[in-house]
Amino acid sequence: MTIDKKRIWKWLRISLLLYGLFGIAIYYLQDYFLFQSTPLRRDHQYDFPMPFKEVNIDYSSTQNLNIIQFETAKPARGVVLYFHGNRRNISWYARFAPMFTEQGYEVWMIDYPGYGKSTGQITEAALFDYASQLYKLAGKKYGADSIIIFGKSIGTGIAAELASTVSCKRVILETPYYSISSVAARFFPIYPMEQMTRVDIRTFEYFPLIKAPVSILHGTADRIISYNNAGRLRPLMKPGDEFITIPGGGHSNLRKFPSFEHKIDSLLQH
Prior knowledge:
Blueprint: H1 5-34, E1 36-37, E2 52-58, E3 64-70, E4 78-83, E5 87-88, H2 90-93, H3 98-101, E6 105-110, H4 124-139, E7 147-152, H5 155-163, E8 170-174, H6 180-187, H7 193-196, H8 203-206, E9 214-219, H9 227-231, E10 242-246, H10 258-268
Parallel strand pairs: 1-5, 4-6, 4-7, 7-8, 8-9, 9-10
Antiparallel strand pairs: 2-3, 3-6
Helix pairs in contact: 4-5
């Protein structure tokens, strides 16, 4: 059997070309896949079925931080600073607010740059700065021992970074990740995602700096951020932290599991 070297080189060149083109597409389209935002007009009127206040912080003519403060009918025990996932905007995540307001906590949510009424360019620095501004605002009303930092999905890394620099009562992370590049590497294993990811929130770097108790909740059937990926944070947990496994839980349906709701209620009652 003779080896057709010309054909081999031809297919090798085609393979390298496709590899390069696909890699370029991944690099330039990563924000489209990672940040699936839905912007809103500045004059949009929110219509939530619960009491709330809207706050806007203007940095410049191009930067606005939009905050929704969901109120509780009970005497407020504190506030939950809620950092949501990568989809849509606050309107999508408002449905989770009662989980906290019914336990006597206000819930303050921010939209990231380009989400809802928040404007500006998404960078790691901008995400962390917006989170810091939310904490500073909460600090004017509540002491650190009344502030809970909560992150969901992509918001877990933002929550972890904030908690690594400030004091709070507790940190709760729903479906966290080791780093964004490590999640991307699972879907694109043949590419150097750590070098290609522009917004690579490295949760593992912030974790050892968090002094407040941390509770992680993660499902074993999560197809977006795998259970094993979140499990890489376990060695970084300190005494008093906890990793709660939700058997059969996916990425977006943990709220449907009684064990998830019971755990959240338990954490809020302490």
